[in-house]
Design goal:
- Its cofactor is Zn(2+).
- This is Peptidase M20.
- Pfam families: M20_dimer, Peptidase_M20.
- The chain has 388 residues and is of the alpha+beta class.
- The protein folds into 2 domains: 269 residues, 3-Layer(aba) Sandwich (Aminopeptidase); 110 residues, Alpha-Beta Plaits (2-Layer Sandwich), CATH 3.30.70.360.
- It has 11 helices and 18 strands.
- The strands form 5 sheets. It has a 6-stranded mixed beta sheet with strand order 1-2-6-3-7-16, with helices on both faces. Strands 4-5-18-17 form a 4-stranded antiparallel beta sheet, with helices on one face. Strands 11-13-9-14 form a 4-stranded antiparallel beta sheet.
- Helix 2 runs antiparallel to helix 5.
- The longest helix has 20 residues.
- It is elongated.
């Protein structure tokens, strides 16, 4: 079988790809290292401009500046495509000096390591090189390709969410370049995330002299925690975890306040509605007389649901992979990404198009080098089919 055109072209540019990746990985860009993220943003800006992109920065005070790069294609009637990748990592300042980009072997497989190499500097670069292959082959038959490289994804994309939402609404499809983990997988859905706090209010009193006049908020909260945790697993596609509990100031005081923080994951909007109703039902019935229980919080990332629109993108990826002799499967993910934002707006979205590898957020994070040409070709093939 003849080698796929995009795979062959991607194989021919692996050395410059890896040189670019080394340059990116060796720049410290932890979420809270603004100077480092901004340095990486300037590096990427130059890389985009060499390809003919127009660029601008959405400037930030707390986090690094978000980079937007736009390339005008050959077809004014073609699709408007948005690619998303984040520049920030979970690692502290100085991590790149301690363990810079390196190439080695893992169980006989050629790999590269370094902070953020998988999540997700290689993903950003895969997107750039995939578009580069189209441009060089005169196949840029889109109206526009826009990249947004945000600086705060690892802490929830709070400062970039409005920008991503605006760009998504102006686009016909969104490709998110988070890690693919396995060469024949993409992500077609992600669970939504909601965070809640339950507060128990009681009455303080002296624990030795007048304990009967107090109402122990910790005891009330304990009953609530047991009842809330019992909800977990009762609603399809929903999980609930009471992860943090706080209460009391001194052992000789009956505490008048206690609270717990809860993580909820939902596969769809129906599950979100059901879990909130179940939680409200629990807290509406305090166990101890004289106590009061309050629920607050809500969804931070809407679920990225597998819809008819996203399924069409999966089918296009599968068609592109078939040309490479690869059979792509789409899988769900329990974690959230910027795909939750774009899919939540109803824009067709696909995720998990980045590099293959493992141990994200771990000092031994790695990517598989031999699979890089396939992943670049996969994105190029998807973009080409979106233009047809």
């Amino acid at each position: 079988m003849p080698k796929n055109f995009f795979v062959e072209r991607a194989e021919s540019i692996m050395e410059p790809f890896l040189a670019d990746l080394q340059a990116m990985v060796d720049i410290d860009s932890g979420t809270y290292v603004k100077a480092g993220v901004d340095r990486l943003g300037l590096w990427l800006q130059q890389r985009f401009q060499r390809l003919g992109f127009q660029t601008y920065f959405d400037e930030q005070q707390q986090y690094g500046n978000h980079l937007v790069a736009v390339h005008t294609g050959n077809n004014p009637q073609g699709p408007r495509l948005l690619l998303i990748g984040h520049m920030d990592t979970v690692f502290p300042d100085g991590e790149a000096r301690r363990r810079p980009f390196s190439r080695t072997q893992l169980n006989g497989v050629a790999i590269a390591k370094g902070p953020g190499v998988l999540d997700m500097k290689s993903g950003v670069l895969i997107g750039i090189y995939a578009v580069q292959l189209l441009i060089e082959a005169q196949l840029a038959n889109y109206q526009s390709v826009t990249f947004v490289c945000n600086s705060d994804e690892e802490v929830g994309s709070h400062s970039s969410r409005a920008l991503i939402g605006k760009l998504a609404r102006e686009s016909d499809a969104v490709l998110v370049l988070e890690p693919g983990r396995v060469v024949n997988r993409v992500v077609s859905s992600r669970r939504g995330i909601a965070n809640y706090r339950v507060e128990a209010h009681g009455i303080s009193s002296h624990a030795g002299v007048e304990p009967d006049k107090g109402r122990n908020a910790i005891l009330e909260l304990s009953h609530q925690v047991i009842a809330l945790q019992a909800i977990n697993g009762t609603i399809p596609g929903v999980s609930l975890n009471v992860g943090v509990v706080r209460g009391g100031e001194r052992t000789n005081i009956v505490p008048d306040y206690a609270c717990c923080d809860i993580d909820v994951r939902v596969s769809d909007r129906a599950g979100l509605k059901a879990i909130e109703e179940a939680m409200r039902n629990v807290i509406s019935r305090p166990v101890l007389d004289g106590t009061r229980v309050v629920l607050s919080g809500g969804v931070s990332n809407m679920p990225f649901e597998r819809t008819e629109a996203s399924l069409k993108l999966v089918q296009l990826v599968q068609a592109a992979s078939a040309d490479m002799g690869l059979e792509i499967e789409d899988v769900p993910s329990g974690g959230a990404s910027d795909a939750n934002t774009t899919a939540g707006l109803g824009v067709p979205t696909i995720d998990g198009l980045g590099a293959t590898g493992g141990l994200a957020h771990n000092p031994d994070e790695y990517i598989e080098l031999d699979q890089l040409p396939v992943r670049i070709a996969l994105v190029s093939g998807l973009l080409q089919r979106l233009c047809q």
